[in-house]
Amino acid sequence: MARKESITIDRILGTAFEMTRESGAESITARHVAEKAGCSTQPIFRVYKNMSELQAAVYDKAVEYFRSYYSSFERIGKVPFTNLGMAYIAFARKEKNLFRLLFVDTAPGKVSMYELLNGSEGNVVTEINMAKELGCSDPGGMFMKMWIFIHGAACMTLSGDYDLTDEETMSLLEKAYNSFLT
Description:
By secondary structure, this protein is an all-alpha fold. The protein has two domains: 1-61, Homeodomain-like (Arc Repressor Mutant, subunit A), CATH 1.10.10; 73-182, no CATH class. The protein contains ten helices and no strands. It is elongated, with a radius of gyration of 20 Å.
């Protein structure tokens, strides 16, 4: 009778993903993953050609995680780009290491920031259309201004320099939008 394989690709990927969430992408080494998964490095290299392939799989899983997070985020803002901003900043607060991996670190083959935000649902396009419907004369330009503001606030969470409440953040996003209209 053949021995049942107990270390699966899902277990290896899940372990590497959780390690990334907890300690950052730089913590992913064959030895560390094997130790956390409770195996030798052999099962890792049985399912992945090399560590770059595992790291790419972790990145893809992080993309899926962000998209799921964003799609389930409660939409309470009525001003264009505020819901996008709230979700993005909240993700940076909650998932600092995944945020770094997806939106700060650079690596070949990564999904562009715009593609990641827009997703298959057209999240950014929806916000741009909302701005246009509400009379914004340059909704694409407005997105760029708001995006610089939103990304800056989210990045400030990484260093602990952003300590505004959700209410204060929403108010700030609304004020930024309205000030950019003029």
